[in-house]
Structure to design on (165 residues):
């Protein structure tokens, strides 16, 4: 509950894409989190986002700080906190694209490790993490941190996954 208002996310039970660090269409109005969507009557998505920014309403983004500072920003926002909690309890496998697990992203690795040890009678633990890499440098970075994961780590050539088509 925030400011006397209960925060709800209408599609939370069906959600399978989580914006842990925010996203351009997500806005915090102070009382609720709104996701702008394309609407043929009200205009294109980028137009709607531009209109909000012109009114000095800004998208939710976590971009700066070390891992602890990023986690504090995540915990401060009900939607981002919901996403983080979901990651801590994810079961099966996780696929990442365009995420490098840099030194300031250890809070994400910690959430995945929590999921690997999540104990519940109804949900299995996180078994594996598939990390899309774009270069040999990316692959070397994953090899450096692979031993820190508590789940099996696999890499794949992200250029072969046409997810944006």
């Amino acid at each position: 509950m925030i400011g006397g208002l209960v925060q709800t996310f209408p599609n939370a039970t069906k959600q399978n894409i989580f914006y842990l660090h925010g996203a351009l269409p997500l806005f915090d109005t102070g009382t609720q989190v709104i996701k702008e969507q394309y609407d043929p009557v009200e205009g294109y998505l980028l137009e709607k986002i531009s209109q909000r920014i012109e009114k000095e309403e800004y998208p939710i983004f976590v971009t700066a700080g070390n891992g602890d500072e990023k986690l504090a920003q995540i915990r401060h926002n009900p939607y981002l906190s919901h996403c983080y909690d979901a990651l801590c309890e994810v079961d099966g496998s996780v696929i990442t694209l365009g995420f490098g697990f840099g030194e300031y992203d250890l809070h994400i690795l910690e959430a995945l490790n929590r999921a690997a040890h999540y104990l519940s009678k109804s949900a299995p633990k996180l078994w594996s993490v598939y990390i899309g890499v774009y270069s040999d440098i990316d692959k070397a970075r994953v090899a450096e941190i692979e031993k820190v994961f508590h789940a099996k780590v696999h890499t794949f050539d992200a250029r072969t996954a046409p997810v944006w088509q």
Notes: The radius of gyration is 17 Å.
